[in-house]
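U., I forgot to send this yesterday:
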Amino acid sequence: MSLLCVLLTGCGGSSAPTGPSGSSYVIPAADLAEMLSEKVMGNASAPVTVIEYSSLTCPHCATFQLSTVPPMKSAYIDSGKVKLVYRDFPVPGASTAEVAYAGAALARCAGNARYFEALDLLYRGQESWISKSNPWAAMKQVMAPIGLASDKMDACMASTEIRNEVSRLAAEARTAYGVGGTPTVVINGQKVEASFAKIDEVLRGMTGQ
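Result:
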């Protein structure tokens, strides 16, 4: 299937802080496999694929996730015509890159059934943790409604396997689509601005709505 790239560069920076320490909690292999899997909202067999490259530390991404994704879900994803694939893209060299990796790991830690709920919590609470001296601890507090044990969240944030998978997807994004900033949206084959109005126009044409 051909792919459409919608590029909006909104977040970047330089130099990264030190991340969280490891944990004595060992992530079971089955849980880890689920954490590493593709994150899909909607019918996996939907004929139209929207790929969103995003960073949890990017304010523009929070706006996109909270203001653009919900109407897209209501209009297209819930009907089974479109699926949304979410892929983390910690902006290379950004001062918040390490925190973005940790956030990506925390959302994956919730499991596929609650992944997008966790993502929503982290984006909605972004202002409450992004500027903290210990954003990792603050993100864990934001994730409290998910009910994960503290040591499990620490283990997820420290997981080399999760970090490597996020890095792999980011490298693939740079190579395949020239992604350099966030949010970047890819929809079956044309480039449009990352606004709901434009995305809606493209999806209406693809789905016949």
